[in-house]
Design a protein that fits this description.
- With about 120 residues, this protein is of the alpha+beta class.
- It has a single domain, classed as 2-Layer Sandwich (GTP Cyclohydrolase I, domain 2), CATH 3.30.1130.
- It contains 2 helices and 6 strands; from the N terminus they run ββββααββ.
- A hairpin with a 6-residue loop joins strand 2 and strand 3.
- The radius of gyration is 15 Å and the shape is globular.
- The mean pLDDT is about 95.
Length: about 120
């Protein structure tokens, strides 16, 4: 396989940096591991952001999300890590990351984190 998971988040210049607009990205196939049991956790990650000078490159984002597949993480920790990494990479005007985790033991978990300049 020529494509491998990577935590490198590539960016490109915002083509309309003089205008506020919103980018929405849905990632319905996110997986990580439960740090207690090692079993897989499945989630839909939703990213909403208003770019500043940079935008996130989508293939790099896909590989970034793939990199969590073999990592153990609590839902709260992984959602905050994703937000922190995106803020570091693109310094957006506003960003919201929402992680909707599938049912486990009769419970659904949704974590929402935000950052504003």
């Amino acid at each position: 396989m020529t494509t491998k998971p990577s935590k490198d988040l590539e960016t490109f210049e915002n083509p309309q940096s003089g205008r506020d607009y919103t980018i929405n990205i849905d990632i319905p196939e996110f997986t990580c591991l439960c740090p207690k049991t090692g079993q897989p956790d499945f989630a839909t990650i939703r990213i909403e952001y208003v770019p500043n000078k940079l935008c996130i490159e989508l293939k790099a984002l896909k590989l970034y999300m793939w990199a969590f597949r073999d990592e153990g993480a609590f839902h709260e920790a992984v959602t905050n890590e994703i937000l922190d990494d995106l803020v570091k990479a693109i310094d957006p005007t506003f960003i919201r990351v929402q992680a909707e985790f599938n049912v486990r033991g009769g419970l659904y978990t949704t974590i929402t984190v935000e950052h504003t300049q």
